[in-house]
Design a protein that fits this description.
With about 110 residues, the protein is of the alpha+beta class. It has helices at about 5-15, 70-105, and strands at about 25-30, 50-60, 60-70. The chain has one domain. Helix 1 runs antiparallel to helix 2 (about 70-105). The structure holds zinc ion.
Length: about 110
């Protein structure tokens, strides 16, 4: 491992240690139909309710939806941003690790 690789690896580890809360899933805007007969959402053409902010995530293969107020979306936005950052850091750490083992073992078939 080169000194640059080592220092980048330590930097990534420091950032990972400080990441804080990281929410899975995504926040989307959705308009919905309530299903009540005679409601405007049942008209032709339908006038849907919303749009609402929804946080959607998967757990045990099922989609779980929570409505968010704009205030909640603002309050927790950084928790969603942290998940993106977490994925970026993990991807970079993995790429760096691949490079490190290839360098260490002299596995460079395409060079
Ligand atoms: Zn309705």
């Amino acid at each position: 491992m080169s000194p640059q690789q080592q220092s980048r690896m330590r930097q990534i580890a420091r950032e990972l240690a400080q990441i804080g809360y990281a929410l899975p899933g995504s926040v989307v805007q959705r308009s919905t139909a309530c299903g009540k007969p005679g409601c405007r959402c049942q008209a032709d053409p339908p006038i849907l309710h919303g749009p609402y902010l929804s946080w959607i995530r998967k757990a045990d293969g099922k989609a779980i939806t929570r409505k968010l107020t704009p205030e909640q979306e603002q309050q927790y936005r950084s928790w969603f941003d942290n998940t993106r950052r977490l994925h970026d850091l993990v991807s970079e750490l993995q790429a760096l690790s691949v490079q490190a083992i290839e360098d260490a073992e002299g596995w460079h078939p395409r060079r």
